[in-house]
Amino acid sequence: MIVHLVDGTYELFRHFYGLRRFHKGEDPPFGAVIGVLQTVLQMIETGATHIGVATDHVIESFRNRLWPGYKTGAGVERALLAQFHPLEDALAAMGVVVWPMVDLEADDALASGARIAAAAEAVDKVCIWTPDKDLAQCVRDDRVVQADRRSQKIRNAEGVRAKFGVEPILIPDFLALVGDAADGYPGIAGIGLTTAARLLNRYGVIEEFPATVLGDKRDLALLFKDLATLRADAPLFGDVEELRWRGPTTAFPGYAEHIGAARLLERSLKARVA
Predict the structure, then answer these.
(1) Packing angle between helix 252-259 and helix 262-273, nearest 10 degrees?
(2) pTM for this structure?
(3) Which pLDDT tens digit goes with each residue over 225-247?
(4) 142-189, pLDDT tens digit by residue?
């Protein structure tokens, strides 16, 4: 059994801006929602049986209380924000398990889902569908892998080491040192990718660095590490069978009509029969 965990927020952004290029600046009101549904349904049509999708029900999280510069919803276009909640409703109507996150982020849900699924004996592999480098910390050998739809790469532990120069477990420390512009924290001035990897491979986690390495920047580095560390203790489900897709719900025909996606209804019914 392979469990597929999908970053719904990333997929929504991806389809929104992809459609904008295709439609030359116009934003179909449910265009990105339909795009995400098509992506998930294609996974099902090609053999995926157990799927969970994590979304950011709101952009802000507990991390905004830790660091004022952490990412917010500021700058996210209204046409895109307007599709966040409809996506959650549409996925649920299509019979897909969805986790709308509020105080935690979608990335935390993916980390939590990976931890729970990987602990189940019936699970052979957990595949996390997102390019976000934060999720590299969840990779475990070949059992928990990260799939980057953009680059068409599946990254196991060896792949994480090749990309970042450190073990998956050290990714929060790595990001703390080099920063993450997408999430809004700068890292430690003067430490680049190569230096960060060298320090971590020599000393281990930031807490074990000699005092002279970071000096008065140690506390800041530990704060950034806290921001980069995904919370994997969200009680999302108790049994992986809860993630099995069993076909669209009775609400999906009406919802498909509402968003103008009759073809999706046909495909989902055929997929259920298959």
Answers:
(1) 150
(2) 0.94
(3) 999 999 999 999 999 999 999 99
(4) 999 999 988 888 999 999 999 999 999 999 999 999 999 999 999 999
User: Can you read off the two tokens belonging to residue 100?
Assistant: 């709308």
How many CA atoms lie within 13 Å of 129's alpha carbon, on the beta-carbon side?
24
